């Protein structure tokens, strides 16, 4: 979860604690906070054991291996693009594998692919979508394909007509 998501979730738990103190039922709390009844039961149990303090956030789920300074440097390098770092193949975007390798090269810190995804999400990065079209894009070839090839490949839509509901084939002839 990102820090913002963690804060939102903590606010929900604390609001649930106020409702527990007022004696509201689990199903009512779950419905009004738009969470599962199972979560509310877990929160209620923690609240009964340790009070409101038991529902406070304990920080990030995993300890981040990069310092704030290292993250700032990594983010700067990510903005420069993969081409600067030697990836000059057809796909000119960042993949999780590439980011993992970049972190290893720059900071000598090992991450898994899943760990890189969590790190990026935690800092507000998401799946990358190209901002502009490829330089090599040939508009004329695309237009020829759209007008010439695509109509031949695309099946025409069948018009509505009543059919038999029977699973057997209709007799021919």
Quick overview of this protein structure:
With 173 residues, this protein is mainly alpha-helical.
Describe this structure in words.
The protein has helices at 3-21, 26-33, 37-50, 68-80, 96-107, 113-122, 139-153. The longest helix is centred in the first third of the chain and has 19 residues, at 3-21. Helix 2 (26-33) packs across helix 3 (37-50) and helix 5 packs across helix 6. The protein is flat. With 173 residues, the protein is an all-alpha fold. Helix content is 53%, strand content 0%. The mean pLDDT is 85.
SSE topology:
Layout: H1 3-21, H2 26-33, H3 37-50, H4 68-80, H5 96-107, H6 113-122, H7 139-153
Helix pairs in contact: 1-3, 2-3, 5-6
